[in-house]
Amino acid sequence: MAVTDVARKKRRIALGCEGSANKLGIGVILHEGDPANPKSTVLSNVRHTFVSPPGTGFLPKDTAHHHRAFFVRVARQALADAGVGLDEIDCVCYTRGPGMGAPLTSVAVAARTLALLWGKPLVGVNHCVGHIEMGRAITGADHPVVLYVSGGNTQVIAYAEQRYRIFGETLDIAVGNCLDRFARALAISNDPAPGYNIEQLAKQGGRVLLDLPYAVKGMDCSFSGILTRAEELAAQMKAGGGKGPDGEPFTGADLCFSLQETVFAMLVEITERAMAHVGSNQVLIVGGVGCNERLQEMMGLMAADRGGSVYATDERFCIDNGIMIAHAGLLAYETGFSTPVEDSTCTQRFRTDEVLVKWRK
Amino acid sequence: MATDTSSGFPCALTLNVPFPDARLASVALQALRVDKELSLLVKRDLSAVAAEGSSDPTVLRVEYKAATNRMLRVAVNSCLDSLALVLEVQEELDVDAVEKRRAQGKSR
């Protein structure tokens, strides 16, 4: 790895801006020491989430409007919390993709403006790589298989030769999207997040496991069929008809429980398959769905069976945030990477393995 | 508004946005011109020009041409949303604004 001038500095600081879905996050990170393995300190991590009413999802136009409305407020808070001067900031990082078009662009416009006003280089970051790098930094996991699960993404990833390679993924929708859309069928609140509320409601279930289609296909999985069936059952329940395998009417809690148990078991299976391929017994779970304690528990049981363990971060880092963009962006910047303003577009599709991970061997 | 019926983009609108100085107009220009228009039925041209009686390019000129008035309206509204964001960032997060707040914070 070439040592750039900035990498020689004792303290390197980046501001990161994230807005690919409904969370607007801005954070400031500090790197010290060897750029190949820096000591990372979170100086600030501020987030504001756009929550839509129960029964609805967040649409691109409204989400972009939210991000534009809150950007300055969140940025000011991030700078104040970090307590650093502009002269100490080395670069401005932003999410290039993947994600929703209008929200991504709304944040990019603001990030470009900051970079130009402050005279700092801009660094475009892959959202998935941001999650992975933050997970590695926080947990210290050595050579894990990464399960990246969120409302927008579901991938099983392992690092090999400067790429985060996708071993398995969803063939249709993300697991978080399945959960979020199911929440609408039961008009579950989206505050703080639909998945969180499903998790709490599921804890009241457990009496019965309803039959939902289990769709693992080799290394990959599929969630749209399960969603359709779960929505059908929800409609039956609302019409007063649904009866479980024990002949008793089932509740929303039973549905939430059954859905979680089924989709999480699928994720555990494809993760285990990748672990067997790669010869790893560590699992790092990143992405918003990674906050789910039942998923962590099920994954932990599987990993323990294989003599390994599960690493997960808390909601500050698993839920979309700006600090992961600052961290991954600074890692790239320290290897000499930056994004000229005229090339700082956003893209809805940006494969995790498109990024050359120059900062690792 | 000027029309250009021969080229298929008969609906047009030009905005001249004055900035306090050429630097800020240039920052806005560079930030806004990166993203392409989403529709092929809309054409946009951005430039920094001088105000009347001046030689300093302190005015951001935004020229839109579209196939229909509806497309023109949608595109211009979207541009104005982005422009408003750029202006707010310039006002509150430019170097002088940030340093001033930091100095005030320290003096407490």
Note down, in words, how this protein is organized.
- Chain B: Pfam families: Pcc1 (PF09341).
- Chain B: This is Transcription factor Pcc1-domain-containing protein.
- The complex is a heterodimer of chains A (361) and B (108).
- Chain A has 361 residues and is of the alpha/beta class.
- In chain A, helix 6 packs across helix 8.
- The relative contact order of chain A is 0.20.
- Chain B is of the alpha+beta class.
- The N and C termini of chain B lie far apart (54 Å).
Integer-rounded radius of gyration of chain A: 21 Å
The parts of chain B where pLDDT drops under 50 for at least 5 residues are none
* Sequence of strands across the biggest β-sheet of chain A: 3-2-1-4-5
Shape of chain B: elongated
Termini of chain B, distance in Å? Answer: 54 Å
Organism (chain B): Corynascus novoguineensis
InterPro entries (chain B): CTAG/Pcc1 (IPR015419)
Pfam families (chain B): Pcc1
Protein name (chain B): Transcription factor Pcc1-domain-containing protein
List keywords for this structure.
heterodimer, A: about 350 residues, alpha/beta, five-stranded mixed β-sheet, 11 helices, B: about 110 residues, alpha+beta, three-stranded antiparallel β-sheet, 3 helices, Transcription factor Pcc1-domain-containing protein (chain B), CTAG/Pcc1 (chain B), N(6)-L-threonylcarbamoyladenine synthase (chain A), ATPase_NBD (chain A)
